[in-house]
Each structure stands twice: as structure tokens, then as C-alpha cells.
Amino acid sequence: MDFVLFAELSINGAFSGLMYSLIALGIVIIYKSSSVPNLAQGAMTMLGAYMVLAIAASTGAPLWLAVPLAMVVMFSTGMAIERLSLRRLAGQPIVMILMMTLGLEIFIRALAMAIWGAAPRRLPIGISDDPLFLGPILLNQAFIVGAAIAVALFAVTALFFRTRRGIMLRAISDDYTASWSVGISVERGIALSWALSSVIATVAGVLWGAVQGVDQSLALLLLKGVTIAVLGGLDSIGGAILAGILLGIFEAIASGFLDPVIGAGSRDLVVAATLIATIMIRPHGLFGRHDIERI
To answer: Each residue of 119-147: pLDDT tens digit?
Structure first.
């Protein structure tokens, strides 16, 4: 075995996994705040990247300014999505809400294609394409920067859920009726979780757009985000970090060693196998809550 290649794949895989975990973080925030599985996070990631490009093109603003402006727009978009579509489903079976988020995913992807087309667009954020050398190991600079930003966002999110507002969101997730009874605005809390998730989706869209360009393929990151969220535990922020690192390493090693033998596609195979195995063996994930109910 080529241990240098193994180390290079593992390190770069861990960094890319942390970037994948940003999509999972958006899913975790909404589930942690409302117990709603969000299948629209991939499309929101794509929409956030397109929004940055649209603001930069229409206003002439540099990217360093277009990104925070897009985050503000996406914050409002998340609030609007909750208000116009999900709030109407209050009290409905969870499967109906799940289908609504899936419908939003499809609608946003179609809308983006209608507005911006299918051609990929560049999103240069100033990160060099030249690798960094750690001895004989080559490291991707974009992955390093993306991983550092992901860790920072995870830390901020973890601190947020220790604040009064964050505790209120956890209370909403545990019991809507009890939250209403003590004066917590459930609607505003859920809307805030969608807004925060949309902001994180914008950051993920910018980072991945810089790596692979901005097009419909950004929405396909949803599968990896869902896999990481399920593996780590749908309500666990720390679990999403660890699961992202593990999945990134698994798929990088699989790609490096299996693709030359079986051809391309081993990355997607690893992701799908991880999701299926997690649901079958440990459906609440590595660190998710295992609620026991009396029947």
C-alpha cells in the first residue's frame, strides 16, 4: 500500500468532509429546532451561490461584499419559505412536511435553471489552485480554507444553542404545545431556524462553488448532507462534524483505490452504502437522541 497516497487522500478527504458537513449543519439546525427533516438544503445551497453571483453582477459589488449581502437575502428567503409554505402545515403528519421540503428542493432547482440556465459559472473567491506541500503530501488549499470556515461555523452554532434563544428552539423541538403554553412563539422560532439554515447554505454554496463551479450539481450535495446528518445524529452538531470527517475520508480513499479498478462512481457508492447501513444498524446515528416511547 502506498502510505503517502493513503495519507494524502485521508487528509484531503477529512477537509472536504468538513465542507460537506456544512450542508448537514443546515439540516441539523432545522431538525434541532423543529424536528422537521429538511430535504431542501441542497437546493438552498445552490441558490445561495447563485445569489452571490447575481448580486455581484447586478450591483458591481466585489465578492467580499456580495457574500454578506447574499446572506441577508437568504436569511429573508428562509423566513419567507417557512411563512408561506411550512407554517400552513402545522399539525399535519410529519410525512406531509417532509414531502413539502422535497417539493421545495425540486421547485428551487427548476427555478434556478429557468433564471440562470444550466451552464456552470465560476465563483473565484481568491483561493489559489496551487497545492500546499506537507512533505510529499499535497493538500488542497480550497479544502483547507473551507474546513476552517466550517469548524468556525460549527463553533458559533454550538454556542448559539446555549443561549436563551437557542434553548427556546430546543424547547420547540421537544414539544410544540408545551412551548406555546409557556409563551414561546413557535412560529417565529421555526422561521428563525430556516433563516439560519439558509445563511449556512449560502456559505456552503460559496465554498463549493469556488471548488466545482456554480450549477445544478451543487444541489446534489444534499445526499451527502443527509448522509452526514443521519450518521452523526439528526440533532447533534458535534456528530455532524465527526460524521463529515469520516464520510470524507471514506469516499476519498474509495475514490483513490477503487476507481482505477472498478471505474468512476465509488464515491457515490460509499455515500449510499453509508446511509443505508446507518439507517439499518443505528437509525439515531452516532450521537443522536434515542427516544424511547411507551406504546
So the answer is: 999 998 888 888 888 888 989 999 999 99
Residue 280 lies in a domain: no
pLDDT at 135: 84
Q: How far apart are CA 196 and CA 82, in angstroms?
A: 12
Cβ neighbour number for residue 237 with a 10 Å cutoff: 21
> What is the pLDDT confidence band of residue 266, given thresholds at 50, 70 and 90?
confident
Cβ 169 vs Cβ 157: under 8 Å: no
Distance CA 159, CA 135 (A): 36
DSSP 167-179: HHHHHHHH-HHHH
- What is the domain extent for residue 134? 13-222
Beta-bridge partner residues of 132: 139
E strand segments, the chain: 132-134, 137-139
Contact (CB, 8 A) for 157 and 170: no
| pLDDT beyond 60 at 281 | yes
Q: What is the C-alpha separation between 24 and 38, in angstroms, rounded?
A: 10
The packing angle between helices 141-160 and 3-34, to 10°, is 30
- Is the predicted pLDDT of residue 108 greater than 90, yes or no? yes
Examine residue 284 and state whether it is found in any structural domain, yes or no: no
Let me know if residue 145 belongs to a domain.
Answer: yes
Q: Which helix (H) or strand (E) holds 137?
A: strand 137-139
Count of domains for the chain: 1
